[in-house]
Amino acid sequence: MTDAREFAGPNGATPARHAPGTPCWVSLMVHGPTATQEFYGTLFGWEFQPGPQQLGPYVRALLDGHEVAGIGQLPPDRHLPIAWTPYFASENVDRTAETVRSCGGTIGVGPLDAADAGRLAIGSDPSGAVFGIWQAPAHLGTAVSGVAGTPAWNELLTFESASVAKFYRSVFGYQEEPVVSADFDYVTLHLGGGPVAGIRGLGQALPRDRGPHWMTYFQVADVADALDHLVHLGGHVLEPAHDTAHGRVAVVADPEGARFALLQRQR
């Protein structure tokens, strides 16, 4: 559960361009952006500044001046699942969108320009999980990683990993590394020799009210402390903190129901 992309550190180094296929941004569309900003601002220490408005009101979240995520407002008449959406880097969004369609996925938004920041599309894989594609002439994406309050990992929760892994391999050129286990269906997606995302097959244990979906892990310094803050702020604990090979993890939801995970790295 590491990230092979290059990023800016806390010292403010200039962020490098993300290699095609690497997760480069996460974005959340909600009905109440003001309350959502207060929730995540308090939980992760984020501040906010205006971003591109092509899809409606939108802000970028900053941690110590570095961009880490985006929050936008859903149109009042759109009753879509509230969920964090990962964006994957592309050198040509239009060409990647065509590949998505030819491989059995769909494109629901775009491709379109986000002012002068870049070009985007939002699509879904054949199982229905939503993801974004980002082409970055100006806004390179998440500019800091490896510290509390930043995205640490993206994981697709779906029915089974094999067929959907083939889709992502065809679209983004990933190499797959399955976890060999009789009772654990998991594939790690690799680029350039390093892991960039994961696919977990849950079978009938997949939440019926969500269907297949991507989930973002955010790094925290102390997961127990973060859970206390989250509950006080109106969030919900879906899976209590538990130890994994990559650290201590808890699955939670914000007040509007967006699911995400908290990750306390092993020391």
How is the main sheet built? 8 strands, mixed
* Proportion of beta-strand residues: 35-45%
What is Rg?
17 Å
Shape: globular
The overall strand count is: 16
CATH superfamily: 2,3-Dihydroxybiphenyl 1,2-Dioxygenase, domain 1
Unreliable segments of 5+ consecutive residues: 1-15
Helix content: 10-25%
CATH overall fold name: 2,3-Dihydroxybiphenyl 1,2-Dioxygenase, domain 1
How many domains, in number, for the residues?
1
Distance between the termini: 14 Å
Number of helices: 4
Strand order of the largest sheet: 2-3-4-1-5-8-7-6
Overall SS class? alpha+beta
Task: Provide the descriptors you would attach to this structure in a database record.
single chain, 267 residues, alpha+beta, 2,3-Dihydroxybiphenyl 1,2-Dioxygenase, domain 1, 8-stranded mixed sheet, 42% strand, disordered N terminus
Written account of the structure:
This is 27 kDa antigen Cfp30B. It comes from Streptomyces chartreusis NRRL 3882. The chain is an alpha+beta fold and about 270 residues long. The chain has a single domain (about 1-265), classed as 2,3-Dihydroxybiphenyl 1,2-Dioxygenase, domain 1 (Roll). The chain is about 15% helix and about 40% strand. Residues about 1-15 have low confidence and may be disordered.
